[in-house]
Amino acid sequence: MTPGVTFGDVDYDIHGGGYVYGRRTDPRIAALVHGALGGARTVLNVGAGTGSYEPADRHVLAVEPSAAMRAARASHLAPAINAVAENLPFDDGSVDAAMAMVTVHQWSDPERGLRELRRVSRGPVVVLTFDGAALDRLWLVDYVPQLVVADRPRFPSIARIRAALAGVVTVAEVPVPADCVDGFNEAFYCRPERFLDPAVRACQSVWSFVDPAVAAEGLARLRSDLDSGAWDRRYGALRRQPTFVGALRLVLALPADAGTGKAKDGLGYQPE
Fold first, then answer.
1. Nearest to 183 by CA among 30, 31, 19
2. In angstroms, rounded to a whole number, what is the distance separating the alpha carbons of residues 119 and 107?
3. What's phi and psi for 221, nearest 5 deg?
4. How far apart are CA 183 and CA 114, in angstroms?
5. Please, which residues bridge with residue 127 across strands?
6. Which of 87, 105, 183, 253 gives 20 to 30 Å between its CA and that of 233?
7. Strand blocks (E) in 125-167
8. How far is CA 104 from CA 41, 184, 187, 190, 246, in A?
9. Backbone angles phi, psi at 249, to 5 degrees
10. What is the 3-state secondary structure of 20-56?
């Protein structure tokens, strides 16, 4: 893919420069993702970005269409292949498992991309995403409601994801830890001051869909409420809350024959 061309709604060749610093692997979330991969030895990471959540103890193949993101991958990670989810250059059942970490909303055709993940994986498909219907659980909507208005249509519904993956599908709410190091919006549920940092917002693509004047007005109100103590009077309990259950979801799809209770290819995948 040539620089400046994007298959999603954000061009990460332009906007993805800070992701390697601001969107790091959170170990608590990673443990859930890696557990969902089961006994897989070969894992395909689609929309791999800078490599967040890729397991270090397995053979990983990575697919990423953004040249900037591919270049930002750490040297210890496998180089990413320039390809898109909707047309994966792999044979049917060629990997033990496939994963897609907070990327499905960036695909031009999510259903086709998810079917491709199912096609190439002979075992689990693991998708980390956000449930658009639950985005308003975060207090930030009270300051910049346009964030939810802009973000909700971007995320395929959980029902759409389930239908595209087929097989035996389970969906789990993912608790976000108070010191989460993956800087999506909900990671700062108890650290509101962080939203005043432009570098933090630059790693959250939804801000690019909000009118700058509207965002500035909402952030000014947030700053004022933090200075006056109004935010803490209303939401201060969150500062002592160890986790937050918002919109983050972990989707695990096993092949259809997993429903028979048989392990898949000896890897030990079992339905819940």
1. 19
2. 17
3. -65, -40
4. 25
5. 100, 251
6. 183
7. 125-130
8. 23, 15, 19, 27, 18
9. -130, 145
10. HHHECCCHHHHHHHHHHCCCCCEEEEECCCCCCCCCC
| Buried b or exposed e, range 96-124, using 16+ CB within 10 angstroms | bbbbbbbbbbbbeebbebbbbbbbbbbbb
Report the alpha-carbon distance of residue 59 to residue 242 in Å, rounded.
33
CA distances from 119 to 99, 138, 159 (A): 13, 35, 19
Contact call for residues 193 and 201 (beta carbons, < 8 A): no
What is the helix (H) or strand (E) element at residue 177, kind and residue range? strand 176-177
Order across the sheet with 248-254: list the strands.
80-81, 59-63, 42-46, 97-101, 125-130, 248-254, 168-173
pLDDT tens-digit readout, 195-245: 999 999 998 989 999 999 999 999 999 999 999 999 999 999 999 999 999
pLDDT in tens, 134-164: 999 999 999 999 999 999 999 999 999 999 9
What is the spatial distance between Cα 96 and Cα 125, in angstroms, rounded to a whole number?
9
Instruction: Report how far residue 96's alpha carbon sits from residue 264's, in angstroms, rounded to the nearest whole number.
Output: 9
Residue 60 and residue 1: Cα distance in Å, rounded? 21
